[in-house]
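During the reporting period the student researcher (J.K.) took over the structure-prediction task from the postdoctoral fellow and processed the backlog of single-chain submissions. One of the processed entries is reproduced below for the supervisory committee.
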Amino acid sequence: MILQNKFDEILDSLGNNAADFFMAASLYHAQKISFATAASLANLSFDAFLVRLEEHFGRGFIIDDATVLEDIATVDAMLPTSL
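J.K. obtained the following structure tokens:
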């Protein structure tokens, strides 16, 4: 990938493999790839990718409402019907 020189100037101050990290983070934020795939594309461990997301974006995981509702339904289905 060829970047404009202006990008190089900005990315140099943001750490190793900044271009790979921000490309992977952008795809993850756009919900085009999973967290694990983004971490792999950024050539970072799961934990290191999470730390860098929190550092640059103020949060790590992105969980949409549909996922939360699905998880709640799954837990409800697993609970016994009578206590």
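The committee noted the following: Residues 7-78 form one domain.
J.K. will present the remaining backlog at the next meeting.
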